[in-house]
Amino acid sequence: MRLSWILACGTAFTLIGACGGLGNPGPRHVLILGDSISIGYTKTVQEILGPDFKVVRPMQNDGKRMENCAGTTKGVAAIDRWLTLDGGDWDVIHFNFGLHDIKRVHPESRKNSNDPKHPNQADLATYCDQLTRITDRLNTTGAQLVFATTTPIPQGTLRPHRDPSDVSLYNAAACKIMESNAIAIDDLYAYALPRLGEIQKPANVHFTNEGSIALAEQVAQAIQAARKP
User: What CATH number should be reported for the domain holding residue 164?
Assistant: First the structure.
């Protein structure tokens, strides 16, 4: 069986991958890594995929609230811990980093900033370096990897400040990294952009309940399409 992925990341391209049966019997073991956008869709993804998939994501210390995986800076520091969750041995890892990387932070305190003149949490070069390091580590797991592009940022005053144009720059850079590693891309940016007014909260990076459900449907489809080589 062969699977074609059409990726709409700046320049569309097609990745052809061989798909075979999973290495492990029983439910497919899935890890979701991402920020608050993924927190918003994880529960619905679990419900859509049902008992044939065991979908896991990092949790906070209380075991009740989902952990925000934030940007690549945290990702580099925490990736080994995340990969050991639930015994590891993942069939599919669906991951995203970007929304926290592009937010503005105070140049000295590194705390969130509303000043558009302040630097990104991770500038583009740092983002590429750190995302590459995370991707290299994920590649060692033998799991089928799926990278989700960062969802659009609406116009308007956002706190902390994020520049909508940064999303395209960071997504394009991420797509190049994924293409070089033959990693499938779940282009949530391309899906959300034409319907942003319907599914995203006004002047907010987060989505309405209906919007999170819509994203969950896209993510579930990407996970279902993935197979462990």
Answer: 3.40.50.1110
